[in-house]
Design brief:
The chain has a nine-stranded mixed β-sheet with strand order 1-9-8-5-6-7-4-3-2, with no helix packed on it. It has a five-stranded antiparallel β-sheet with strand order 13-12-15-16-17, with no helix packed on it. 8% of the residues lie in helices and 54% in strands. 26% of the residues are buried. By secondary structure, the protein is mostly beta strands.
């Protein structure tokens, strides 16, 4: 009886050793896609629809592979944010699944680098622990100034259709921008918009920038034709994990009285 029990334990140990979980790390950093040299998963591609959640595609190396459980955690502190769920990649997509975060990130968590950890197996029953890193949202540091150019004009108070008592204006304004974007990955691009009728040039003379890594953009004393009370500027950085949008509004309240009255950031 003891001999049979020992044999059974030995057989169980061998079986567990054969199917011990193999760790497959992410060697591609925080970019959209992670490719793996071995294991059940060939690659994972982040494709989030909203910054507060997380979505990705799982591409398997061969048919019959699957991921059965997973969670997301903070890369530095190790804090777990919650578990993930799985879905199919669509009709006929036998080697593609989707994975999504069953929860929401708060503002602080959106700024941090995070890791998706999955338990997966192939058709032969081999077990793998697969990791996929994804970055925090881009961080926008932005310093601007606005000054009037030329004469400050007031509404004409003569004639039957006069409108006295309103705000004055400058026909031109000079705008200076110092913009630093820490996009935390190489798959981010940014766009900028300005008041209707203006072409924004905050990205070193352009109103958008293609995929790039962290960079600084400077605009010196750009003169715009202008006759309104509010000068609105928005920069949006588009990342695989969502968007960071920062908006500033300069208001012309009077002669030599131009103030930054709105400056806020939203995450989408």
């Amino acid at each position: 009886m003891k001999f049979k029990l020992l044999a059974a334990l030995t057989t169980g140990f061998i079986a567990n050793s054969v199917y011990a979980q193999t760790v497959v790390n992410d060697l591609d950093g925080y970019n959209r896609a992670s490719a793996y040299a071995n294991g059940a998963v060939d690659r994972i591609v982040t494709d989030s629809f909203n910054a507060r959640t997380f979505n990705a595609w799982i591409y398997f190396r061969e048919g019959g592979s699957e991921c059965t459980s997973g969670y997301i955690y903070d890369e530095i502190t190790g804090q777990q944010y919650g578990t993930v769920k799985f879905g199919t990649g669509g009709p006929g997509a036998s080697m593609v699944d989707t994975v999504y975060f069953n929860g929401t990130f708060n503002d602080e968590q959106l700024q941090r680098n995070r890791v998706l950890a999955l338990s997966c197996q192939n058709l032969q029953g081999e077990q793998f622990k697969v990791y996929h890193k994804f970055s925090g949202l881009p961080a926008i540091t932005w310093d601007t100034s606005l000054v009037g150019v030329g004469e400050y004009k007031m509404p004409d108070c003569t004639g039957s259709s006069s409108h006295c008592g309103g705000r004055g204006w400058y026909e031109q304004v000079s705008y200076t921008s110092s913009l630093h974007v820490n996009n935390k990955n190489e798959d981010t691009y940014c766009t900028a918009t300005m008041n209707e009728g203006f072409t924004s040039r905050v990205f070193n003379g352009y109103d958008s920038t293609p995929l790039f890594h962290t960079n600084h953009f400077a605009l010196e004393n750009e003169v715009y034709n202008f006759n309104g009370p509010a000068f609105r500027q928005t920069v949006t950085c588009h990342s695989p994990v969502g968007q960071t949008q920062r908006t500033q509004v300069w208001v012309v309240s009077g002669e030599n009285d131009i103030n930054l009255e709105v400056d806020y950031t939203v995450y989408k």
